[in-house]
């Protein structure tokens, strides 16, 4: 899916995920704990982990992953050049589908940093 407005997409997805959190609170809490544990600074810093997550989102063809991890990468100071290198690695690992979703990831990053 080509997302035209990434901020709107995140807002819409946040609302949908809120419904899941209400309906499956134990699962949602477990997922949140998993995310917090995986993304905290350790041998790798949070920005590096977000860039890895973005690459996985590209290869998994997950629009939500692109939106959230592009935004988090931007907030953690990732440059457009770093995003492009991540896209290159994802294309190498994921082939043609990653080329398509890599371009979507760049659109997400650009769309979410346009007002910065």
Count of runs of 4 or more consecutive helical residues:
5
What is the fold named in CATH at topology level of the domain at 44-116?
A: AhpD-like
For the record, what CATH class of the domain at 44-116 applies? Mainly Alpha
Note the beta-strand portion: under 5%
Radius of gyration, taken over Cα atoms and rounded to an integer in Å: 14 Å
Class of secondary structure makeup: mainly alpha
Bulk shape = globular
Q: What's the CATH H-level superfamily name of the domain at 44-116? A: AhpD-like
Distance between the termini: 25 Å
Description:
Helix 1 (6-23) packs across helix 2 (25-39), helix 3 (46-60) packs antiparallel against helix 4 and helix 4 packs across helix 5 (80-113). The radius of gyration is 14 Å and the shape is globular. The protein is 82% helix and 0% strand. The chain has a domain at 44-116: AhpD-like (Up-down Bundle). The mean pLDDT is 93. The protein has helices at residues 6-23, 25-39, 46-60, 63-75, 80-113. The chain is built from five helices and no strands. The chain is mainly α.
């Amino acid at each position: 899916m080509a997302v035209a407005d990434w901020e709107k997409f995140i807002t819409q997805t946040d609302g949908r995920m809120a419904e899941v959190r209400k309906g499956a609170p134990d699962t949602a809490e477990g997922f949140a704990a998993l995310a917090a544990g995986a993304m905290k600074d350790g041998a790798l810093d949070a920005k590096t982990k977000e860039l890895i997550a973005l690459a996985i989102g590209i290869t998994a063809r997950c629009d939500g992953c692109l939106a959230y991890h592009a935004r988090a990468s931007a907030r953690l100071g990732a440059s457009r050049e770093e995003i492009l290198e991540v896209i290159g690695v994802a294309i190498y690992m994921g082939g043609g589908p990653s080329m398509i979703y890599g371009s979507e990831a760049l659109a997400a990053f650009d769309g979410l940093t346009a007002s910065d």
